[in-house]
Design a protein that fits this description.
alpha/beta; Rossmann fold; 7 helices; 7 strands; globular
């Protein structure tokens, strides 16, 4: 029996890289998966096709997660299609680089709206459904630089650090509902980059893992699957680093 059989998961930022790996692994564990991306229809459809090719169930949704009404609609669509919602993975994020004095307030707010506020909005929208589950789990996806800092990423670092605090606060607020809330913080993962983020981030040039290699998205996904499954029910309010030893808290 697959450990997530009969469960439904919703994964944001599921069109590629870590989000795609998480969605596929949760589907392999037996969950039906709602997939959200802001604009990458082709990537989202490819993720869904990969899940369906292995016999899994997937629903694709394009939604701007900074829009409260669209977030509510996306969560409702996932619930309506599959009949439940048990797992929420807040993975959507923007990552850009700029020297501190050049970051505009609009840029600052754009990063916070996706990296931090979207997790807040999606979690609130999902909460009524999660409360009806007997094994609900929320997993926020953080980042290495929230703990090490990074040049030219003040807005990204601050927003990701905010997710750490949000995780601890939500874990306390939702414990009485039996909902676990954790944060997975990947570090130096080998992912494909495109568009304005195609260049290697500056902080990657100054860190090396103890294991001597970059991580794989699938290795991050394995931790999310554990936290979402029956063996992760006694873990909540935690930040778990998947980074090959590049950062030792």
């Amino acid at each position: 029996m697959k450990e997530l059989a009969g469960r439904t998961a919703l994964v944001t930022g599921a069109a590629r890289n870590i989000g795609r790996a998480i969605a596929i692994d949760l589907a392999r564990a037996g969950a039906a998966v709602g997939l959200i991306a802001r604009a990458d229809r082709a990537g989202l459809d490819e993720t869904a096709a990969m899940i369906r090719a292995e016999g899994g169930r997937a629903e694709t949704i394009l939604a701007d997660l900074t829009d409260e009404a669209l977030v509510a609609a996306a969560v409702a669509q996932t619930h309506d299609v599959f009949g439940s919602l048990d797992i929420l993975v807040n993975n959507a994020a923007l990552r850009s680089e700029a020297v501190f004095e050049d970051i505009t307030l609009a840029q600052w707010r754009a990063i916070f709206s996706v990296n931090l506020e979207a997790a807040f909005l999606t979690s609130q929208a999902a909460l009524p459904h999660l409360r009806r589950s007997d094994a609900a789990a929320i997993v926020h996806m953080g980042g290495l630089t929230a703990y090490t800092g990074a040049r030219h990423r003040a807005h990204v670092v601050a927003a990701k650090a905010g997710l750490d605090g949000l995780t601890k606060a939500m874990a306390q607020d939702l414990a009485e509902d039996g909902i676990t809330v954790n944060l997975v913080s990947p570090g130096l993962i080998d992912t494909a980059r495109g568009g304005r983020s195609a260049a290697q981030p500056d902080h990657h040039k100054h860190h090396a893992t103890l294991l001597g290699r970059r991580g794989r998205p699938e290795e991050v996904a394995a931790m999310v699957r554990h936290l979402a499954g029956p063996n992760g029910r006694y873990i909540t309010g935690q930040t778990i680093h998947v980074n090959g030893g590049v950062f030792l808290p």
